[in-house]
Design brief:
Blueprint: H1 3-21, H2 24-28, E1 31-39, E2 42-45, H3 47-59, E3 61-76, E4 79-92, E5 97-111, E6 114-124
Parallel strand pairs: 1-6
Antiparallel strand pairs: 1-2, 3-4, 4-5, 5-6
């Protein structure tokens, strides 16, 4: 694994950690200013929209744990793409437990602060 692939893998780890801790600021640091976060019922454009939406999601959740099942990254200079299969266990504030399995399709951009998500689209498994 080269240095860029390792750095992107660390970005994925930082994202998962921010999700599990419900840390809005750490979650926001994973994105470019103009990032796009999409999925079923989710259309966020720009870092402030992403952070606001994540904070609202976490208000309803008492615990969330994501596990990356497998993934792959293709790097092209200061840009890269990746696809990651994930499993997520969620406990809502009302005690309801649920699970999600799906795929993230990502676009990354190298910034002065390191690799960030330029776009992240979640597609649930059928």
């Amino acid at each position: 694994m080269n240095d860029d692939a390792l750095a992107i893998s660390r970005l994925i780890d930082e994202y998962i950690d921010a999700v599990s801790r419900g840390d809005v600021e750490a979650f926001g640091r994973c994105w470019t200013a103009e990032g796009q976060w999409t999925g079923p019922g989710l259309e966020c454009s720009g870092i402030f929209s992403i952070m606001r939406t994540f904070a609202k999601m976490r208000e309803r959740i008492s615990a969330a744990e994501q596990t990356v099942v497998e993934g792959d990254v293709e790097i092209d200079g200061d840009r890269a793409t990746g696809s990651w299969l994930i499993h997520e266990a969620i406990v809502d504030r009302d005690g309801k437990e649920r699970e999600r399995v799906g795929r993230y399709d990502d676009a990354y951009r190298r910034t002065r602060e390191g690799w960030k998500f330029a776009a992240r689209q979640f597609t649930p498994s059928e």
